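>> received
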Amino acid sequence: MRAFFDRVRGAIGFVPNLFRLWARAPHLVETLVQLETTVGGSGKIPAKLKELAMLRTSELNGCPYCAAFHSDGCGAAGGDAAQADALKSRQLPPGLFADEEAAVLRLTDEMTLEVRGRPETVNKVIELFGVDGAVELMATIALLNFDNRMAFTADLPVDVR
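>> returned
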């Protein structure tokens, strides 16, 4: 496991506590980390929009571990502090988010709070990002809901970097 931790530390500068948790199941860790890096990595959905979705999911679920991790990620991806702060409220303020951002957040809210996206929301996301982009965004939101549940259940402390 040391070689794995060294690779992660070399790539991002630290080993997230979520990865340390997964390392307790050696038969799963490589697959879970690969899923995380593939879904969270570059693709059709811009990094800022993915980070908004990930932070929103974590805030809706009340996951302090993931919210702290993705607050940092949101800022690094070009998100602004007012937007990040607004994601803490159930009701998002009108006019703060551009159309693309609002569509991403609407799908995030629906998938997190209602389990599925409404057809009109999914169609809007497809219109904006294509089918492959919509699938990528759905995978991002679903993965963060998974991460939130893992972090909550394990009572993970916020990462110290």
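>> The chain has two domains: 2-40, 47-154.
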